[in-house]
């Protein structure tokens, strides 16, 4: 709640937010106070001062009955703004009902209603307002209903579109499956999730309603005498425009200012609720230097990837959150490295940083971040596009659902190799063949949804092979697949490595998968690499040992309870002072809680960040023995 409040404060501090706050406060104050303070002065008839020009006594002059136009303009604020807001509220209400009814009504009735809304949306709003004004009759009430019904179709369409985008989500499907009725589904699951854009559009819509209302009153079919709003004042002022132009200009200026207030408020609300990160995008303070997570070791001269002291940070309301805190490793050509660790340990962010895919407001810093000998920040897109391949966990969302698979693969060669459309498509078919997609020529012409999960994942790898990748980064590539397909994909990665000489960085929470595929393993915990070891070597860090102990295989004793690591990893913004694993480590000492261990070599090709390495967690040896 406090966080939300601070977002609003930050939004009001922007130039647009400040203007909107001042204008809105002015409009609301006038609407509330003006009739109370100046209502009588605005209604007072003075036959001695009929049709006067602006003067010290009457700043905007007087009308045909000698009434003060300055006070009348101020007093008209309440009716003008109040009626516009009322019309908008009714319009939004009717729009929400019309927009949601199709999902509740029988199919044929819903379609009929949708078609009617579509037809109504096609009519210009003012024309609809005039049409309804004739139906509901001349006068304030008729004008309110006319404008409400004129704006309702646009809101109905908006609600339909927003509901359609929400109704495809998994939580709606889950609610449906669990037997939630249509109306409850709508009220509980759909409407709360479309409320924010609706409010933003309603605020902006109130500005248009204000203008429309002034238009109807100006035409004589809105507010009727003795009541008056800005539209009526404009109509009366226009009669004497050559004598006193201010009489017409003042209500016009009032409409413009109030309309501006609504629109700017809409923009501010949109900035806060629509793009919530915008307000926090401003960096809270200079990003602190990355703590040295590892002892500097010179990487191989031909390393494909060199990462030294990598830090990924995001600005938050209370300062920087640093989910990746000084990660260092290097990858040699053709090498397969696995990155393991519990959820939230920073594996994916490390991969994204290495692929230059961390978006603002995220900040990536490193002492050294090089790909194929070139600083990553300077590597041309073409170089990265052809020599670094990325395979994501969910290929369904990584492929564009509206384009054929073959064309998406071909785009890489058209873009980066300058191949013609036909040649690029032929290469796409060839690559699909290489990743063993059956009937590749036919499959290349299909859409992603026509592929099975495993086939999509292979096609994704095929896309990476359109160039000559030096490094394939695969982020949980088999998590969504069944064991048989998982095996096929892992085999394919291994084959890619052999055939193309590509290095592999395989991210997985499954230590068994990594052991089968990789020769080295980086174990991450709370944004740090805590152990870097050859696969199969005895683990030295208590966390790695605990992770290995939780791995289940065919030889696991089913009579024994499954091993678990007690506790949870710390949140990125609550990492403790010393070793982040200390709170869960049975071997932790005061030193662990006070001092953060650095990743240091303990044996050939083996680095550990622990004050007490080589201690067996399971055997219950004391830490003194282990530390020795
Ligand atoms: N854009 C972001 N802004 C703030 N924090 C983020 C952002 N993206 C990720 N994080 C946080 O960074 C931490 C590490 O995330 P990351 O996705 O790298 O973890 P992971 O080890 O890959 O986990 P998983 O196995 O669940 O994918 C998480 O706590 C996550 O909440």
Automatic annotation (TrEMBL):
InterPro entries: AAA+_ATPase (IPR003593), ABC_Ni/Peptide_Import (IPR050388), ABC_transporter-like_ATP-bd (IPR003439), ABC_transporter-like_CS (IPR017871), MetI-like (IPR000515), MetI-like_sf (IPR035906), Oligopep_ABC_C (IPR013563), P-loop_NTPase (IPR027417). The chain crosses the membrane at residues 12-38, 79-101, 113-136, 198-221, 241-273. GO terms for biological process: peptide transport; transmembrane transport. The keyword Translocase does not apply. It is found in: Cell membrane; Membrane. Residues 305-551 form the ABC transporter domain. It is a multi-pass membrane protein; Peripheral membrane protein. Residues 77-266 form the ABC transmembrane type-1 domain. Pfam families: ABC_tran (PF00005), BPD_transp_1 (PF00528), oligo_HPY (PF08352). One of its GO terms (cellular component) is plasma membrane. The keyword 4Fe-4S does not apply. Its main location: membrane. Keywords: ATP-binding, Cell membrane, Membrane, Nucleotide-binding, Transmembrane, Transmembrane helix, Transport. Belongs to the ABC transporter superfamily. Belongs to the binding-protein-dependent transport system permease family. This is Oligopeptide/dipeptide ABC transporter. It comes from Amycolatopsis camponoti.
């Amino acid at each position: 709640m406090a966080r939300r409040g601070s977002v609003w404060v930050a939004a009001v501090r922007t130039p647009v937010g400040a203007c909107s706050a001042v204008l809105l406060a002015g409009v609301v104050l006038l609407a509330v106070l003006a009739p109370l303070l100046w209502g009588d002065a605005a209604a007072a008839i003075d036959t001695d001062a009929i049709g006067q020009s602006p003067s010290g006594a009457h700043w905007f002059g007087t009308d045909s009955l000698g009434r003060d136009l300055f006070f009348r303009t101020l007093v008209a604020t309440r009716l003008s703004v109040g009626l516009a807001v009322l019309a908008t509220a009714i319009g939004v209400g009717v729009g929400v009902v019309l927009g949601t009814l199709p999902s509740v009504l029988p199919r044929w009735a819903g379609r009929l209603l949708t078609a009617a809304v579509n037809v109504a949306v096609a009519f210009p709003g003012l024309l609809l307002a005039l049409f309804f004004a004739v139906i509901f009759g001349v006068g304030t009430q008729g004008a309110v209903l006319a404008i409400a019904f004129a704006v309702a179709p646009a809101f109905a369409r908006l609600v339909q579109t927003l509901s359609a985008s929400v109704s495809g989500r998994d939580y709606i499907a889950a609610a449906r499956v669990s037997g939630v009725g249509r109306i409850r589904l709508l009220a509980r699951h759909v409407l709360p999730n479309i409320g924010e854009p609706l409010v933003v559009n309603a605020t902006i819509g109130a500005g248009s309603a204000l203008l429309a209302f002034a238009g109807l009153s100006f035409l004589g079919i809105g507010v009727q005498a003795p009541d008056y709003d800005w539209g009526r004042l404009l109509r009366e002022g226009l009669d004497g425009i050559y004598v006193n132009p201010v009489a017409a200009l003042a209500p016009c200026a009032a409409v413009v200012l109030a309309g501006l207030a609504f629109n700017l408020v809409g923009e501010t609300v949109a900035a806060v609720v629509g793009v919530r990160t915008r307000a926090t995008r401003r960096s809270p303070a200079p990003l602190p230097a990355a703590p040295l997570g590892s002892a500097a070791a010179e990487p191989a001269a031909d390393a494909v990837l060199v990462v030294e002291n990598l830090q990924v940070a995001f600005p938050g309301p209370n300062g920087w959150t640093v989910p990746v805190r000084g990660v260092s490793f290097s990858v040699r050509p053709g090498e397969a490295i696995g990155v393991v660790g519990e959820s939230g340990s920073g594996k994916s962010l490390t991969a994204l940083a290495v692929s230059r895919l961390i978006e603002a407001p995220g900040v990536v810093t490193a002492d050294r971040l090089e790909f194929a000998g070139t600083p990553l920040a300077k590597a041309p897109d073409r170089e990265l596009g052809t020599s670094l391949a990325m395979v994501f966990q969910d290929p369904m969302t990584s492929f564009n659902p509206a384009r054929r698979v073959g064309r998406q693969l071909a785009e890489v060669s058209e873009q980066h190799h300058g191949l013609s459309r036909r040649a690029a498509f032929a290469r796409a078919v060839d690559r699909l063949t290489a990743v063993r997609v059956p009937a590749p020529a036919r499959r290349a012409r299909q859409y992603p949804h026509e592929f099975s999960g495993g086939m999509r994942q292979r096609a994704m790898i095929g896309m990476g092979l359109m160039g000559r990748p030096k490094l394939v980064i695969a982020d949980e590539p088999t998590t969504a697949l069944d064991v048989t397909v998982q095996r096929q994909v892992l085999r394919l990665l291994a084959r890619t490595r052999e055939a193309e000489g590509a290095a592999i960085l395989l991210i997985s929470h499954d230590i068994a998968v990594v052991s089968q595929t990789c020769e080295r393993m980086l174990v991450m915990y709370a944004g740090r690499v805590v152990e870097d070891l050859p696969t199969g070597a005895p683990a030295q860090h208590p966390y790695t040992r605990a992770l290995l102990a939780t791995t289940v295989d065919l030889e696991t004793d089913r009579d024994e309870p499954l091993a678990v690591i007690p506790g949870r990893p710390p949140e990125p913004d609550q990492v403790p002072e010393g070793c982040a694993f200390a709170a869960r480590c049975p071997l932790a000492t005061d030193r662990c809680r006070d001092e953060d261990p650095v990743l240091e070599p303990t044996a050939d090709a083996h680095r550990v960040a622990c004050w007490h390495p080589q201690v067996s967690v399971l055997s219950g040896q004391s830490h003194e023995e282990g530390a020795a």
